[in-house]
Specification:
Layout (H helix, E strand, L loop, with lengths): L8 E5 L2 E5 L3 H11 L4 H9 L5 H14 L6 H4 L8 H15 L45
Antiparallel strand pairs: 1-2
Helix pairs in contact: 1-3, 3-5
Length: 144
């Protein structure tokens, strides 16, 4: 069973249940695949809500590999999801919500809504002397 507190979701592919999670390694893999410089650029890409079929395939493949599968993106292309393309979009939306802080949304009923990624929640606090000032948000509330 998937643990939403660790960013995991469950998905049914080819009639079997799978666990997916975007680990740090999976996110690095996606940065390289999409040519994004960092996680903020990756999050901004996802926030746009525009995905090609190849994008869906890459995100699902990275999520499966993050959960321990050895599946290749080319093999993901041959999987079937309940609901067809809509099912794949739902899997990616729930996976991104679980990864980027919307874990409560990852349990909701499937929708076609574009995933919302809170880019500001990924902000890295500035270090003293770098001009960031008091306005910088910490990704770890309650710590100094």
């Amino acid at each position: 069973m998937a643990n939403l507190h660790r960013g995991e979701i469950e998905a049914q592919l080819n009639g079997e249940r799978y666990c997916l999670v975007l680990t740090l390694g999976a996110l690095a893999e996606l940065e390289a695949a999409f040519g994004d410089a960092d996680m903020l650029a990756l999050a901004a890409r996802f926030e746009s809500g525009r995905f090609s079929a190849r994008d869906l395939m890459r995100v699902i493949g990275a999520g499966l590999r993050g959960a321990g599968s050895s599946i290749k993106d080319e093999d993901v292309a041959h999987l079937q999801a309940e609901g067809g393309v809509t099912g794949f979009v739902d899997i990616v939306a729930r996976l991104l919500a679980a990864t980027f802080g919307g874990a409560q949304d990852a349990t909701a009923e499937p929708t076609l809504a574009a995933p919302t990624v809170a880019v500001s929640s990924l902000a890295v606090p500035s270090r003293a002397g770098t001009g960031g000032g008091a306005a910088a948000r910490s990704p770890f509330p309650g710590t100094t």
